[in-house]
């Protein structure tokens, strides 16, 4: 029997900062996200099934995830699934992880790695979080580990869920309150962690030098940010190829004629390698648009496997 880790066991093995370190490590080792396999999405009556394979170094793996929007009404997780980690040369199964827990760790880690390079360092930061689900909680922890926070404002459709996230932030010792979309005008960092398909706020309100991270969608017809923000921003992505396939935040403004494919400033790999450092001379916001990629799941799964003590170091 191969090791099987529950969601609770997975969540306790790595911090978001350690997961971000694992992502940076594989990029520094030469992994090129532009050449990674595409995500396969299959519509089904309950939502969609996602298949995300990847291979790098001594390991391979595949995530099979279900996205079921109706689960929220039933009190069930919106994202379900499993991740199978394999030995690279033999494809022998090594471990099975809870796919939702892996995603809940991996996605904030990707954002944290981007913020290491894009968010200001010289002062405590005002944070605005859109959404109050698992990704909002994970992103709050991830950002808190990377930067000192002056305060947290939560904007969510469900007032009770927003209040619960505010209470959680206060329990962490942070000044926190609920707010409105207009609060982005005073934010240093804006996190978009929602299932929205249309823009959450007026991008003209975001201040110069602020950083916006949008992680909620991977569909070409869905977006959390508007054309005004994209046009003003230095834009960073995980992969140009993946963004130009899946990132509605960029594809919709391009279809409108507001930007071209060359509007992307750089990638996560560029930031990690120092090829495109955060644009100090840029007088607008910075936008990191994440769609989620299979290489990220693999990198974090390998780090989890090695942390269990059963995995080999590479």
Roughly how many Å apart are the termini? Answer: 23 Å
| Main sheet: strands, sense, barrel | 8 strands, parallel
Which regions are unreliable across 5 or more consecutive residues at pLDDT < 50?
Answer: none
Basic shape: globular
Residues in helix, %: 25-40%
Spatial strand order of the main sheet: 9-8-7-10-11-14-12-13
Number of strands: 14
Strand content: 15-25%
Order of helices and strands: EHHEEEEEHEHEHEEEHEHHEHEH
In short:
With 314 residues, the protein is of the alpha/beta class. It has helices at residues 7-13, 16-28, 99-118, 134-146, 159-171, 227-232, 240-246, 248-255, 268-273, 294-307; strands at 4-5, 40-44, 47-56, 59-67, 79-87, 93-98, 125-130, 149-155, 176-178, 189-192, 211-214, 234-237, 264-267, 286-289. It contains 10 helices and 14 strands.
Explain how this protein is built:
It is built from 10 helices and 14 strands. The protein is globular and about 55 Å long. An 8-stranded parallel β-sheet has the order 9-8-7-10-11-14-12-13. By secondary structure, the protein is an alpha/beta fold.
Observed structural traits:
34% helix; 14 strands; alpha/beta; 314 residues; globular
List the helices and strands and how they pair.
Blueprint: E1 4-5, H1 7-13, H2 16-28, E2 40-44, E3 47-56, E4 59-67, E5 79-87, E6 93-98, H3 99-118, E7 125-130, H4 134-146, E8 149-155, H5 159-171, E9 176-178, E10 189-192, E11 211-214, H6 227-232, E12 234-237, H7 240-246, H8 248-255, E13 264-267, H9 268-273, E14 286-289, H10 294-307
Helix pairs in contact: 1-3, 2-3, 2-10, 3-4, 3-10
